[in-house]
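Title: Prediction job returns without error message
Component: structure pipeline
Severity: low
Priority: P3
Assignee: unassigned

Description:
Job completed but the reporter wants confirmation the result is attached to the right record. Sequence as submitted:
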Amino acid sequence: MEANTRFIVGLGNPGKDYERTRHNVGFMVVDAFVKSHGLSWKHEPVLRSMVAEGNIDGAKTILVKPTTYMNASGEAVRLVVDRFHLPLSAMLVISDDVDLPLGNARYRTEGGAGGHNGLKSLIACLGTQEFARLKIGISAPPERIPLEEYVLERFMKEEHGVIDRVVAKMLEVLDSSSPLQETTWTV
């Protein structure tokens, strides 16, 4: 592995049925990043992932969207880590977070799963919770909607502008030459 490598994982569920759902905000950010840098996704069945690679600002950059579905994301990420010999210190995981209001995002260098099944899978398969994560707020569900249904719902029409601004802000963050610091953004 090259010394200057970036490894970005977007969490979500594969397929048209899950596009623009709350649980797929990680996919939305990496898709926008890939598009903004003229890269393209390649299906890697052995890695159980979609992978995009390129040199961005002098750094070998590997982006991953697991095709295992959210709850088994760690299985795919483990395969990619092993295949490319990637240190977890180079990894940034982008996921949704029901504990953050819509329009907010938070960067942390490590932490627990916070009830997120994709992060639980990553921690179990990687054997550590010491990896950076960028959590995108999707707000908590109304009391009448079970969490497992809520995260699979598409964003409401009135939320589209907010989530699009968050994705655009996360592209600025990912493209910044400054090292990420633990912080929260509100758009």
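Comment from assignee: result matches the submitted record. DSSP finds five helices and eight strands in the chain.
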